[in-house]
Amino acid sequence: MTQKIQDAARRIRNRIISVAHHAPSDGVHVSPALSMTDILSTLYGVVMQYDAQNITCHDRDVFILSKGHAALGLYATLCEFGIISEAQLNEFEINGSVLQVHPTKHPEYGIDFSGGSLAQGLSFATGLALGRRLKGERWQTYVLVGDGECNEGAIWECAFMAAHHKVDNLTLIVDRNGLQSDGFTQDVMQMDLDALWRACQWETLVCDGHDIEALQAAFSAPHHGKPKVIIANTVKGKGVSFMENNKEFHRNRVSAQQLTDALAELNGGQHD
Amino acid sequence: MIEFKPATIRSWSMLGSRGTFGMTLLELAHDDARIVALSGDLCKSSGLDRFSTTYPDRFINTGIAEQNLVGVAAGLAASGFVPFATSFPNFLTLRAAEQVRLNLGYMQENVKLVGLASGLATGMFGATHHGIEELAMLRSVSNIAIFSPADCTATVKMTQAALAYDGPVYLRLTGGMRAPIVYKEDFELIPGKAITLRDGNDVAIIATGSMVHVALTTAGHLADRGIDAAVIDMHTLKPLDEAVIAAQLGKKLLVTMEEHSMIGGLGSAVAEYVGGQAQRPKQLTIGIPQGYPHAGDYGWMLEQSGLTAEQTTARIMDALQ
Q1: Which residues form a coiled coil (chain A) (predicted)?
Q2: CATH number at residue B280
Q3: Which residue segment(s) compose the domain that B313 sits in?
């Protein structure tokens, strides 16, 4: 199973790079998409319960992408798992397309939340989880935020509230890639996220966000009656060495040569 | 089942709009399990005390955290509930403006925002609590209907209408306890269809919320001076009933009256429509002037802002000169 997820993650990264290259705009948020790829592969590949052919069905687990600028990573994941088609994915950033720079709520595409204005996904996901609990439904809600996004006060308003109300059908993943728009998070705004989430009384786990087995273990770990946060240590631009930890690829064009180099490195001689 | 008996209507008036809202939501929740209520640590102020004890599972206190309150309400709406999210208007809409815009405007989640004690009703609390700008912000956001009941009877009607309305709503509650009664018996209220309370050939007064009663009194004063004024209750600010305004364009003077900044509220909405018409009367916008008046009791605050019937009558007489 781990190999299957790793293969899916590799294909998703291929799509991210290729679509970014072909996108008509002058830049694409590439590296924030690559840092969360293993997390989303694990979620959509083994953790979440849903029917890809009936994605608007209410009876399913839900994923909310709060760090909306990484939308291409979500779109490529939705494509990998058969929720949207390759043709739909290739409409990324084309005028009038559903697949914009930031995700727009579009249930038929499996997009349940409009992200882009940071720190709004967690409250929405908490409301969704509360509603499901109120109805006695077993479905889980997953929401992913960036570590830079945790600068926003609205995150902490919800952190206290979700813990107080013991929203134990909610799992938050912090994609801790250590970089935000203006540089390294430790330089922009130092935050001890492990201590902060523990102080907020969340079930707090820390793992390697590129280790599929570690992610699976974290997702399957008990909530102990609390909302759960998985602080996933990741590398921004993961998988493409010249993008890794490189501030220039937060949003940038991918040239033809960079596309060739990136795909060669990602695939390492493998072909699907 | 809510009955509109004269004695009941009088008791609602004693409660004021907040208490009436809380009572109405409690009644509605009995028959509609989709209703949930949210408060940011203002349960008592919102008239939701009994709701919170009767339906503890369906009452959610988010703490003093309005951005989160609006986002959580949207998530509840997405899971099939009809959340009534309550707070003082500035905190609910201005502090959480981004959340309101994204969740209600952009995503159109079926949330009902309830702005408690809008206008100057929290007089003594001072400018931090005076809700005099939220309409300007909300009107510019797409997809949110804005309801503004004229009295407690209308508050009951508009709470029911908000529940029935398919989409986001802002319910603006104005006035204090022992609120003047405009609607003494049951009446038909259709969102988006203004109610003409009084016909008149010279002047048309279009008022909303607490100022509807002031407009009626003003029209009486004007009648004593031989001026025939129509009074229209514009209980829905968005979508605006343009047809009823169009019918007033032949009058000598068009007056708008609201307990809100003169910028961005009813007066602006009417002017935006009327400005595009070929023939139109002069418009007098009566609202709260720019600036933050000192705190005081509600009646004094209204007087400071020029919103008593005597003051509005004088201003209309001046405008007719």
Answers
A1: none
A2: 3.40.50.920
A3: 195-319
